[in-house]
């Protein structure tokens, strides 16, 4: 696990996986997530994890 600010993420998590998690929860397209920098991806992925009930990530 890697801790980034207020959230912990698996170290092997790729930007494509971050974008996929965001897309599943928020129904955003790759064009939407493709414009995001890493910090934004991590922040939105954290929000997606909270919304799907994930506690550890």
What does it look like?
Helices cover 54% and strands 11% of the residues. It is mostly helical. The protein has one domain. Strands 1-2 form a two-stranded antiparallel ribbon. α1 (15-26) crosses α3 (38-51). The mean pLDDT is 84. Pfam families: Phage_P2_GpE.
Poorly predicted runs: none
The proportion of residues in beta strands is: 5-15%
Q: What is the succession of H and E elements?
A: EEHHH
Tally of individual helices: 3
Strand segment tally: 2
Compute the CA-based radius of gyration.
10 Å
Instruction: Walk across the major sheet and give the strand order.
Output: 1-2
Amount of helix: 40-55%
Structural class computed from helices and strand pairing: mainly alpha
Task: Kindly report the average pLDDT value.
Answer: 84
Shape: globular
Distance between the first and last residues' Cα: 9 Å
* Biggest β-sheet strands, sense, barrel: 2 strands, antiparallel
Total discrete domains: 1
In short, what is this structure?
The chain is mainly alpha-helical and 57 residues long. It has helices at residues 15-26, 30-34, 38-51; strands spanning 2-4, 7-9.
């Amino acid at each position: 696990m890697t801790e980034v600010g207020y959230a912990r993420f698996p170290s092997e998590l790729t930007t494509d996986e971050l974008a996929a998690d965001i897309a599943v929860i928020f129904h955003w397209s790759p064009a939407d997530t493709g414009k995001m920098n890493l910090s934004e991806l991590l922040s939105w992925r954290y929000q997606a994890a909270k919304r799907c009930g994930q506690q550890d990530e």
